[in-house]
C-alpha cells in the first residue's frame, strides 16, 4: 500500500524535490556572501545592487506565496478526485483494503511529502533572508528590500507559517476533490479558495492571534512624523490626524489615530497644527525662534488634550504569531482530514 501510494504521487514529489534543489542551490551560493556583507555599512544598499540578490528575494516571495495553491491544486485535489474519476479506488477497496486504511495511506504519504518539501524550502528561505530582515529596522527600507518581516506582506513567507499553509492547502485540496469528484474542477476550486484565504487571513484573522499593544502616547517634536488631511471641497485641506513613531519601525501598526482628551477621534484638527510639524531631515537649534514656535504649538496641542492612540504588534512577537498561525492552519488541516475520513465512509 505504501509503495502504491508512492507511485501515484511520485511525479508531484519529483517536481517538488527538483524545485527545492534548484532554489536551495541558489540560496546556498549567495547566502554566505550575504552573511559576510551584513557585517559592513550600508549592507542593504550593497545587497540591493546585486541582481542575483534582488531576483532571489522577489522570486522566493512569489514562490512561497504560490506554494499553497500549487500543493492544494496539484497534490491535494487529484489525490482522491483522480481515483474517483477513473474508478480505480473501488479496485483497492475490493482487495481487502478498507476505505479508512486506503485514505490513511494516501493522506499520510502526501502529508509527509508536503511537510518535507515546504518545511525545507521555507526554512531555507528564512535563513537566507535573515540578514536583510535583521538589517531593515536599522537601515530602513532600501531598494527591493522594502518590507519588514512583521508586515502583512512579508509575514506569510517567513518562519513556520508557510508550512502550516502548505498542510492546510493539501488537506483542502483532498476534501474539495472528494466533493467535486472531478480533477480539473477540484484543482480550480482549491486554488481559488486558497487565494481568497491568503488575502482574508492577513486582513481579518492574523492581528487577532494575540492581543495587540494598545497605547496612548503624547505627541512631541521628536516622535512626530506626518500630518494627514483630506480636501474639503473648497480648495482647502481639513487636517484629520498625525502620524508618529510611537512604536518601533519594524512593528506592525494596526491603528494610528489622533484622539482628543476624551479618547475620541476628532472630526478635524485645529488649523494651527500645521505649524507644529518639524522641518524634515533637519536638526534645528532648540533655541531658535522657529523651533520655539513649533514647540509652543506642540505644547498648545498637549494642553488641549490631543494625544496619539496606537495599536500594534511589536516585532518581538514575530515567532509567537508565526507559531499561532501555523497551529491554526495545522488544526484546520486536521479538521479537514477528519471530514475526509467521515466522507469516504459515506461514499456508496
TrEMBL record:
According to UniProt, the name of this protein is ABC transporter permease
GO molecular function terms noted in the UniProt entry: ABC-type transporter activity
GO CC terms: plasma membrane
Query: Would the keyword Transmembrane be found if you checked this record's keyword annotation?
Result: yes
Q: What are the record keywords, sorted?
A: Membrane, Transmembrane, Transmembrane helix
Q: Does the keyword Transmembrane helix apply?
A: yes
Q: Which residues cross the membrane?
A: 12-35, 55-81, 102-130, 150-177, 184-205
